[in-house]
Specification:
This protein is α+β, with helices and mostly antiparallel strands. It folds into 2 domains: 32-119, Ubiquitin-like (UB roll) (Roll); 132-366, Creatine Kinase, Chain A, domain 2 (2-Layer Sandwich), CATH 3.30.590.10. The protein is built from 11 helices and 13 strands. Strand 1 (37-44) and strand 2 form a beta hairpin. It binds adenosine-5'-diphosphate and manganese (II) ion (3 copies). It is an enzyme of class 6 (ligase).
């Protein structure tokens, strides 16, 4: 009805709060599924986001091989042309679903084109190949995912509208009103990750207000990318229920506000063993030689963040040091003391693809075969 002011009950409830509508939906959620399983197929899209759709399976799943290949319309996601639009999604890992619970699952997929080659945005395939070739090195990765929570208007959540909060200082690991924002969402995401079996190793509030970090790892090889992508999916999905947007932009607010990174902690078996410091030092030389190849896949807009200020190194110069948070790579003080352990590559931006980061690190340290 044109010009009608009548709005439905559902719209009414949503207008009050997005999660209020979910409370109404809750009474349907424990209805019996009659043995069927809901499988949420998730894939990475053309702009570093995630997409997903659900299919019903006839019984609970115990192995990834039992999950059928599926497809989607790639012309609707910028992943294929309209005249050849089918993109195939192949399950590579599955996780308990913290939203639907029970036997329902989240299914992480690789994207493949109809000619049998990996989709342009499928960086997992090549990374997995490299990791398999160099499996004897036993690479471990632990990534620190920083991100910013935004209101629906795109301004950081909790910031004065059209204005700024007080200067940075009280917010990092902050506790108390005015020092920390969105703890409810962060806690919900943390629990959702644990339920799903993600190796989330911690969380902390960041230097810029409304910015947080979670860490995933250490995980071996390709598993790090799988788990981090699933943790990103869970974050978007949880925040959706609170009407809050997640930004992985490396410099969401220009000026004297910290950017967001994806610090990547790395070790191999020989780095973790006695005398490992020598192996770490030789890794520094290899990384220095390929600095710009790494920067090329360490995220878009990273030049706004890697300025040499705000605890970053400069984008056009490789440097490393013990306990140095202003270099490309930091060797933790404890590692230098023990003479073995791991190093932290501080260059990757928060929006980088963890498959590309971990893939190129293996390639650089082991040679590209
Ligand atoms: P920071 O002091 O840089 O904020 P965090 O505590 O946030 O450090 O993250 C450090 C990460 O290092 C942890 O999440 C962990 O996964 C990872 N890590 C620890 N030991 C190793 C290791 N031997 N190899 C690879 N990653 C490791
Ligand atoms: Mn950290
Ligand atoms: Mn951090
Ligand atoms: Mn760090």
């Amino acid at each position: 009805m044109a010009g009608s002011t009548v709005i439905s009950n559902a719209e009414n409830v949503r207008a009050q709060h997005p999660s209020a509508a979910l409370c109404c939906a809750a009474k349907y959620m424990d209805l019996d599924q009659r043995g069927k399983v809901m499988a949420e197929y998730i894939w990475i899209d053309a702009v570093g986001g995630v997409r997903s759709k659900t299919r019903t399976l006839s019984k609970p799943v115990t192995s990834v091989d039992e999950l059928p290949e599926w497809n989607f319309d790639g012309s609707s996601t910028g992943q294929a042309p309209g005249d050849n639009s089918d993109v195939y999604i192949r399950p590579v890992a599955f996780f308990p679903d913290p939203f639907r619970k029970g036997d329902n699952i989240l299914v992480l997929c690789e994207t493949w084109d109809s000619d049998g080659t990996p989709n342009k945005f499928n960086h997992r395939h090549e990374a997995a190949r490299l990791m398999e070739t160099h499996a004897s090195e036993e690479f471990w990765f632990g990534l620190e995912q920083e991100y910013t929570l935004l209101d629906t208007d795109g301004w950081p959540y909790g910031w004065p509208k059209g204005g700024f909060p007080g200067a940075q200082g009280p917010y990092y690991c902050g506790v108390g009103t005015g020092k920390v924002y969105c703890r409810d969402i962060v806690e919900a995401h943390y629990k959702a990750c644990l339920y799903a079996g993600i190796a989330i190793s911690g969380i902390n509030a960041e230097v810029m207000p409304a910015q947080w970090e979670f860490q995933v790892g250490p995980c071996q090889g390709i598993e790090l990318g799988d788990q981090l992508w699933m943790a990103r999916f869970l974050l978007h999905r949880v925040a959706e229920e609170f009407g809050v947007r997640i930004s992985f932009h490396p410099k969401p607010i220009p000026g004297d506000w910290n950017g967001a990174g994806l610090h990547s902690n790395v070790s191999t078996k020989s780095m973790r063993e006695e005398g490992g410091m020598k192996v770490i030092e030789s890794a520094m030389k290899k990384l220095e030689a390929r600095h710009f190849e790494h920067i090329a896949v360490y995220g878009e807009g990273n030049e706004e963040r890697l300025t040499g200020r705000h605890e970053t190194g400069s984008i056009d110069k490789f440097s490393y040091g013990v306990a140095d948070r202003g270099g490309s790579i930091r060797i933790p003080r404890q590692v230098a003391k023990d003479g073995k352990g791991y190093f932290e590559d501080r260059s990757p931006a928060s929006n980088a693809d963890p498959y590309q980061i971990t893939g190129i690190i293996v390639e650089t340290l082991c040679g590209g075969v």
